Amino acid sequence: MSGLDWIAADWGTSHLRVWGLRGDTVLHQTASDQGMGQLSRDGFEPALLALVADWLPEGQVTPVIICGMAGSRQGWAEAPYRAVPCTPLDGPLVQAPCRDLRLSVHIVPGLQQAKPADVIRGEETQVAGFLAQHPGWDGVICLPGTHSKWVRVSAGEVVSFQTFLTGEMFGLLSEQSVLRHSVAGWADAGFAEGVAQGMERPERLMARLFGLRAEALLNGLAADIARARLSGLLIGAELAAAKPYWLGQRVAVIGAAPLAQHYAQALGTLSVPVTTHESPAMTLAGLAAARTLLPPEAPSCVN
Fold this sequence. Notes:
The chain is of the alpha/beta class. The chain has nine helices and 14 strands. Helix content is 35%, strand content 24%.
């Protein structure tokens, strides 16, 4: 299609989201379930082309900037981690091998922390996008999701970060554990109660989790209250553990609604100054910043 001059892609474990752009203007966007977890190494190029082939101008090379799990060891091409403290983005990007000469595919590296051992892949691009839109900002960025990230930022650099398995635990407990029989829907009152309990006594988390099942059996605990309380318990325990990050700091929460609002609500009860930001916008801003790291005339894909 005329006017397209680059493609941005966010390639997760379970999803692929792509945007076709002219400068900063989005001309096309689409998504698929062809995440890294569903693909062999030689499946990445076909999965991308299935979404963008009709967008590509003939007779020219279109740069594609990718963040996320396409750069993992099991991905399209491994983009080695960069050690913190460092800026969230820096060149060079890693060029991915492909056959279609209309493409020039480049992958953003993740970040690593030696002690305590931790890694980020994909979220560094959202951090970069946020900083591009908020120059000079210092504080803590919370990125809730399957694996929640808390990132300390100072002077334009990622200083340290911590990952929590909160979202994945919620999925496992609500869908595959004995609690699946007792949780469904959502009630805000249950969430607030769970956050308070998780923050107050995080060491009681395992007992309180089973208590959801027991209350449902013996006291008729409503399923919507139980599910929201389950989320609150896990997020409350995460906040208790992440206290060195948010205490005395301003926090920017980057994520999808309603999860980002749940985190902001929980932080608000602690009098933490917090703002929320949509993750797709931050991802796009970060990928646009990554595009500036390409050489003036990026070569087509390595064959």
